[in-house]
Amino acid sequence: MALSSNGLYISANMKMAELLMQNHYCVLMAEHFGIQIPVQERTIEEVCSTNGINVEVFLQFANLLSGVNYTPVAEYTSDDIMTIISYLRRSHQYYLDERCTHIREVTEKLSSLNNYAEVSLLKKFVNEYIAEIGEHLAYENKIVFPYISELRQKMMGVITEQSITGYSVVEYKEQHHDIAEKLADMRNLLIKYLPVKDDGKVRRELLFTLKEFEAELSIHSQMEDSILIPLVEKMESMVKEAENK
Amino acid sequence: MNGYSVLIADASSIITDGLKSILNETALFSYIYKCNTISVIKDLLEDKKIDVVVLNPAMIQNNDDLLHYIKERDNNIRIIAIQYAYFDQKVLNKFDSVLHIDDSISDIKSLFLGLLIRESDSDSEQGENLTDREIDVLKLLVKGHSNKEIADLLYISIHTVISHRKNITFKTGIKSVSGLTIYAVLKSYISLEGFM
Lengths: 245, 196
Known about the structure:
The structure holds 2 protein chains of 2 kinds.
Chain A: H1 16-22, H2 25-32, H3 44-50, H4 55-66, H5 78-113, H6 117-155, H7 169-175, H8 181-193, H9 201-244
Helix pairs in contact in A: 4-9, 5-6, 5-9, 6-9, 8-9
Chain B: E1 4-9, H1 13-26, E2 29-35, H2 38-47, E3 52-55, H3 65-73, E4 78-83, H4 89-92, E5 97-100, H5 105-126, H6 132-142, H7 147-154, H8 158-172, H9 177-186
Parallel strand pairs in B: 1-2, 1-3, 3-4, 4-5
Helix pairs in contact in B: 2-3, 6-8, 6-9, 7-8
């Protein structure tokens, strides 16, 4: 599920501005890649080159968002892996610092305008959920990404011992459950059942921000499933192969 | 998932089978259960969602136990008498409607149609109403019980619990236990103490 699955195939000589105008979510995606706006008339290839990003990696992400089947990068370099990890770290930062903060603030506003029990329950649900997200992202930041860095260093021959022993991508896959489900439940409650006394603007603000988060997480999960996990599996098998020699 | 279920209970299989055959033709019911004894009535009511019960008045002639039992399971169940012997009007008055052995097939169909249409009107007033059984499962679920525990507490199978949970999610649109908890509070199925 792409945010804007227009099915448009993104290529390297397309203008970056055209991509960002066509598919709004790519504005956020570009930010997570560390790309600066304004981009003038430059092509995707040129912009990536300026920013030290492998254009193939960028295109893989952009096409995933566009809903297009893009051939995965054949051979990720160690720099590519760094690019992907940086991308994911930046998106985590965005979720926690900006998105979750906004959700918490709007919920607080709703709660202060509607001082009754069920809205307090919703607030509790929201805060618990944000804490859960925080844990999930911390798990990725503290365990998964360092593990990947370690694999990368082993591939480069920099280190030979594994400090994060016994960990593998299999464990990560098991952790990967549907974290966006509760957001849909919250929206359902707000739309169908939860009465609010205010004129509805705050509730609408909350609905919008919850929906955006749901879409962002959904794409984030998709990226992890179709790009990150296959990448790690490949790295693991390469490292294993090298070790068995 | 709007099909209704009916239970036909009479000591005579000629009656139960005959009536089942007629009701099949109406296409009003997704499930038609039949039985010949009171104990099987109770078993079926435990496990299945039943909307209409057709009873021989003899089963409640001397005491109201069975009537109470049915109403306790679900107050919305419609109870119809199938009459082919003399019964005091007082007994017949306890039923929502009376079917006579010599009623024509079209009369019988009209009677059930009339019952069910009225019921679905009140459904749309109330919204997505969960059945009593679904509410029982919901209450235990938001208290933190597992499917197995719920099954044991309600004397139903795990399969039935899962089925009820699917219905609850289907009707409300809510998947998580946290979400369902808020729903349960909003509908006054549970009180707030212990959750805040």
